[in-house]
Amino acid sequence: MVSEKRLLELLKDLIRIRSVNPDLVPGGNGEEEIARFIGTYMESMGLSVRYQEVAPGRLNAIGVLKGIDGGRSLMLNGHIDTVGVEGMSIDPLDPVLRDDRVYGRGSFDMKGGVAAMIEAVNAVVDSGISLKGDVVVACVCDEEYASMGTEAVAREYVTDAAIVTEPTACRVCVAHKGFAWVKVEVTGKAAHGSLPSEGVDAIVGAGKFLSRLDLYARETLAAKEHPLLGSPSVHASLIEGGSNLSTYPSRCIVQLERRTVPGESKETVEKEMEIIIQAVREKDPKFQASADVFFTRPPFEVPVEEPVVRAVSEAVGETLGREAEYIGSHPWLDSAILSGAGIPTVIFGPDGYGAHGAVEYVDFPSVVDTARVLFSAISRFAG
Ligand SMILES: [Zn+2]
User: Fold this and answer.
1) How many angstroms is it from 291 CA to the middle of ligand 1?
2) Which of 34, 71, 278, 322 is deepest in the core (most CB within 10 A)?
3) Cα–Cα dist 345/131, whole Å
4) d(CA 77, ligand 1 centre) in Å
5) Is the pLDDT of residue 92 over 90?
6) Are residues 50 and 144 in the same domain?
7) For position 311, what pLDDT does the model report?
8) CA dist., res. 203 & res. 248, Å (int)
């Protein structure tokens, strides 16, 4: 049985330990202290524990509950880093329970989910059930920046399925968007401002590119529709160009972010940038530009028939007495890395408010529900 009291204590202990991602916030303390705390806690539960140090002071704590006869193995995955604590209007590291909410930095994103998955396994151990397959509890670093933690886990632990316990308000998340970062360089020709016949204005060229991109977003992207994620999108993020007031600018660089839906990839984004550049060039033969898709994270989708999705859905029905609700989520999550490593993955976690915000809390009853659903899903999948 899931113990509410033990779960609340664990959640509060996790919030009290600062674990700010140092790549996101210079001077952040990293995950070493919290990983060691969790490792010791999982050892006391009887799990075999290992630390993966993926960079100095950046640790994953991984606990394994061994199955008895090589049945289906299941990973529970949650990140233990948080964003910064500056500018919060609550005490970020002093967890308070008020009106069923536990306040503090990381309570919602995502120490609530981490506490729930550890308590679920604790309840399995308590119950004396022998599972057939292994349960791997992966508490990972660096999700808020570059996901080094889950990448290291996925290299060494290829389980038969995974559940990421990011917050979903106890709904079953089966898809999320990906993204691509693109650098577009428009090349003009520098000339004295008094010589219009010689100069080619790269900034005006970038303007033409952007208005064509806007048209493409409104007409082509808006017409695409993923049933759970809606339309893909694109926005301009950064722009630079020009040297001084009396010179035609020879170069303008625009950086964009393109949010992708399943079926889109680095290649499809490259192709679409080429189409937009071509369309501008057809109207303006002097227009010259190139696009570099320099960083991508793939979108994610898992079929609802996948056994791990079924296990979670049935666990929701049994534990919460209602049908599972399937949703898509907009931000990118570590689930795409696990899925890319060939591990069927689903996302299920608690409810709350204020990820990265000035006030952050997790709804405690939903943390308890998450732990109970995970307990049931573990027995169904690895039992
Ligand atoms: Zn998160």
Assistant:
1) 31
2) 34
3) 20
4) 11
5) yes
6) yes
7) 98
8) 9
Phi, psi of 187 (to 5 degrees): -110, 125
Q: Which of 371, 327, 298, 346 is nearest to 160 (CA)?
A: 346
Q: Is the pLDDT of residue 236 over 90?
A: yes
pLDDT tens across 148-183, in order?
Answer: 999 999 999 999 999 999 999 999 999 999 999 999
Q: What is the pLDDT of residues 121-138, one digit of tens each?
A: 999 999 999 999 999 999
242 and 163 belong to one structural domain: no
What separation in Å is there between the alpha carbon of 198 and the centre of ligand 1? Answer: 52
CA of 31 to the centre of ligand 1 (A): 14
Per residue in 323-355, pLDDT tens? 999 999 988 999 999 999 999 999 999 999 999
**C-alpha 351 to ligand 1 mean position (Å):** 12
* Model confidence pLDDT, tens digit, residues 23-79: 999 999 999 999 999 999 999 999 999 999 999 999 999 999 999 988 999 999 999
Number of domains in the chain: 2
CATH of the domain at 346: 3.40.630.10
- Give the DSSP letter of residue 69: S
pLDDT of residue 69: 87
What is the chain's mean pLDDT, rounded? 97
Kindly state whether residues 17 and 115 are assigned to the same domain. yes
Q: Identify the pLDDT of residue 331.
A: 86
Distance 301 CA to ligand 1 centre (A): 18
Q: What is the pLDDT of residue 196?
A: 95
Same domain, 347 and 367: yes
Domain that holds residue 231: 178-296
Give the neighbor-by-neighbor strand order of the sheet with 251-260.
Answer: 233-241, 251-260, 178-187, 288-297
For residue 8, give every residue at least 6 positions away whose Cβ sits within 8 Å of its Cβ, in sequence order, or none.
Answer: 97, 102, 364
**pLDDT digits over 98-117, tens only?**
999 999 999 999 999 999 99
Ligand 1 midpoint to CA 99 (Å)? 23
The CA 110 to ligand 1 mean position distance, Å, reads 5
**If you measure from the C-alpha of residue 362 to the centroid of ligand 1, how many angstroms do you get, rounded to a whole number?**
13
CATH number at residue 210: 3.30.70.360
Q: Give the distance (Å) from ligand 1 centre to CA of residue 46.
A: 27
CA of 180 to the centre of ligand 1 (A): 19
- Domain end: 296, 312, 329, which one? 296
DSSP 236: E
CA distance 234 to 273: 11
CA 141/CA 116 separation, integer angstroms: 17
Same domain, 14 and 118: yes
- Expressed in angstroms and rounded, the spacing between residue 255 Cα and the centre of ligand 1 is 25
Q: Tell which of 271, 296, 321 closes a domain.
A: 296
- 239 with 314, same domain? no
